[in-house]
Every structure is written in structure tokens, then in C-alpha cells.
Amino acid sequence: MKKSVGKGPHAMPTPVWLVGTYDIAGKANLATVAWGGVCCSDPASVTISLRKARHSYDAILKRGAFTVNIPSQQFAVAADYAGIASGRNEDKFAKAGLTAVKSDLVDAPYVAEFPLVIECRLLQTVEVGVHTQFIGEIVDVKADESVLDAKRLPDPAKVQPLIYSPTNRVYYGLGEIVGQGFEIGKQLMK
Length: 190
Known about the structure:
The protein has 190 residues and is mainly beta. It has a single domain (14-188), classed as Pnp Oxidase, Chain A. The chain contains 4 helices and 12 strands. It has helices spanning 55-63, 76-84, 92-96, 156-159; strands at residues 14-15, 17-22, 28-33, 36-41, 44-51, 65-70, 100-102, 109-111, 116-128, 131-143, 162-165, 170-173. The longest helix has 9 residues, at 55-63. The two termini are 31 Å apart. The mean pLDDT is 96. It comes from Geomonas paludis. This is Flavin reductase family protein.
């Protein structure tokens, strides 16, 4: 029998995304976000959620843009740091040894060292309790050549993204392939 663990953000896993912005002074900043995901396929869009107190909050509203930078597992320390330090007090790019690249498409920086980057234009905001959900239309996705599969699409096994368990505050890597989506379920349709 299942036991109640109480209400809370126990959905798992969540992504580990570093959101790139330029603050009001024009300084490149990063914020680690676990509250995020794909929210629409047409227009292709993602959502991230931030508290108003976060340094990146006003930057996204002011610039109307952000990037989603997907770190590989080798960047776990930098990803955690970007979530616990404040861009008000520190240059997170410099401290983490990362390079800010100015996007040609949106008014936000992305991380040169990360294998996968999603450039977004702010479409909408939604107030949800203590967080604001920022919905960004995907303007472009950039991937390192080394993480592309035979179809020239990002391969999760090559990207090696981090995932996060908010329940116990632990980072994980991806596991083995379990099956092909939109395929393995067909065996129950017979």
C-alpha cells in the first residue's frame, strides 16, 4: 500500500538547466533552474519558474529573452554553484570557469562549454504562488557536433545531462535506454 509523504514538489526527475540572462547592468548571469520543461510543441516553447527575489527575474522581464543551457555531468559543480550563489554578488561565469557567448538571436548569453543550448524569446509570464513561470518560445537550439546522432539531432547519451531529485536534493545522470517512444506501447494495442 502506498504511504502519504505529504504535499511537496516530489515530481522526479527535474532537469538541471542553467538559465542565461544579461542583468540590468548588462552583466552575463546564470541561474540554475530545476522547475522547467517543454510546455508547447507549436510554437516550440519551454517554461522555467523563478522566484521574484532571484537576480535573473528582472533580467528576463527587461530583456524579453533567456537561454536554457544544458550541462553535461562533468559540469555538476558549476551547475550547483550557479544555483546557490547570487549574480548580484558574484560573476558566476568567471567563478565557474565558463565562457559567456552573446546570442545573435536573443538578448541573452549562452554557455560555450555546455553541449546543448536553447535560445528563447519571452512569450508570457504566469504567476503561480511564490514563483513566476516564464514561457519562452524556442528561437534556436545549438548543439556541439560531438553530441549529435546520425540524424543530426542531440543524443541524450552523448549530452549526458544532469537530472535532479528535489525530494532529496541529489543530482543524477541518465540511465539506460528502456525502449523506443511511440513504439513499445504498441504491443498492448494488439
